[in-house]
Amino acid sequence: MPFARNGETNIWYEVFGEGTPVILLMGVGGSRRAWWERFPELLARRHQVVLIDNRGTGKSSKPARPWTMADMAADVHAVVRDLALGSFHLAGCSLGSIIARHYVANWGGERLRSLALLCPPNGVPASEEDRNAALFWDRSRPLIESARKSWPVIHPADWVAANEELLVRKFEESLREPTPARTFRFQLDAAQAAGFANEAVNRYAWPVLVLHGTADRLVPPANAIEVAKAIPRAQVVWLEGASHNFWCHAPDESASVLNDFFARADAAAGVRYR
Fold it and tell me: CATH code at 86?
């Protein structure tokens, strides 16, 4: 089974597709399932896609004690080591974008071909109401009630109204591998304690992409502007009308931007696609 081991922690990952590797890192509380199917499948038409269950989610170990951002960065490196990846593209959404930046800080950027930061936090908070709706569910009531409250925060409201059946199905699928409530707190506390590690990214010359929805309520769009200020070479691309989980509600547009970005980075390194 595809587990990488970081000390006592087992990290589950899945690999599919062929081509230059792309590692995808999910956000708070999400496992590999939170990418849904369409977005990674589109990337896999050109790339070997590596999906990781962050510790505390999916099939990975779910420690009962808090962990650090350094632990999560080391988890990623355990997968890199397990797959013997010589070079790869690294992409993270939301919390995953923080993990990605700390991967560079803790393990170096020599293996990276590029870095893609999707809806990256950088110090501009959501409203308390939106943050609580998206991340801190009322576990004393049926979880579907909290899920319904979270959907308009992470997806466009009109898209939610037109896709309720799909959202219910995806919610039910997520319950097959539930994320413990403590994972949300541990991940958020680790991120707050660690900061964003933008300075580490500036030590390298590979390309950086910031991809952000213009209607993101959980990580307001101003965060993308702050990241671009902190990482001057970063290219900012806006998905008009998209919200936080744009890989779900705008998978074709999201994958198109990333595939073009990865292609340019690979071309600069002399890689040709079939």
Answer: 3.40.50.1820
